[in-house]
Amino acid sequence: FMLQKEVVQRLAATPGEKHYGRLGIMAQYYCQVDYLFTVGPGAFKPAPKVDSAIVRMTPYHQLPHPCKDILKLEQIVRDAFSQRRKTIRNTLKQHLKAEELETLAIDPAARPEVLTLADFVRIADYLIDRQR
After folding, report:
1. pLDDT value of position 26
2. Given pLDDT bands bounded at 50, 70 and 90, which one contains residue 4?
3. Which DSSP symbol is given to 36?
4. How far apart are CA 35 and CA 27, in angstroms?
5. Backbone φ and ψ of 37, nearest 5°
6. Closest Cα to residue 81, out of 70, 92, 93?
């Protein structure tokens, strides 16, 4: 796909990068996302005011981190990034306690942008299991 460069950066971002967030996590849950190259404005007539980029999104045959409930995963990721500069302990306090995060080997003082997709799946699965 060719998309605006900023969108492709969000889709392909990895933990710790400034563009890492909800869009990238959920896209990477379903697909291998590869930022291929940038296309400058000069490639178009008339030239747009933004750069474009080419991204390859290859759906997984088998999900690398399957979760027990995709809706719970979406909720956890949305809540975690709703207040991006807060710690995971604060953004997810309505779901679980800091001690429960530690049990899952997740630092409660970490910010959401450093957690991996596997970390978010682990939190969502834990909450589903706890409900049962």
Report:
1. 97
2. very high
3. E
4. 13
5. -165, 165
6. 92
Tokens of 49: 């005011």
**How far apart (Å, rounded) are the C-alpha atoms in residues 43 and 2?**
12
Rounded to whole angstroms, the Cα distance separating 28 from 122 reads 15
Domain residue spans in the chain?
Answer: 2-59, 70-131
**CA 1 and chain centroid, separation:** 19
Per-residue pLDDT averaged across 15-37, rounded?
97
**Residues in the chain, how many?**
132
Q: pLDDT over 70 for what percent of the chain?
A: 100
Cα–Cα distance, 51 to 19 (Å, whole number): 16
Whose structure tokens read 């969502």? 124
User: If one looks up domain 70-131 in CATH, what number appears?
Assistant: 1.10.8.100
Look at phi and psi of residue 64 and say left if phi exceeds 0, alpha if psi is from -120 to 50, else beta.
Answer: alpha
Q: Measured between alpha carbons, how far is 61 from 33 in angstroms, rounded to an integer?
A: 14
Cα distance between residue 108 and residue 50, in whole Å: 38
CB 124 within 8 A of CB 76: yes
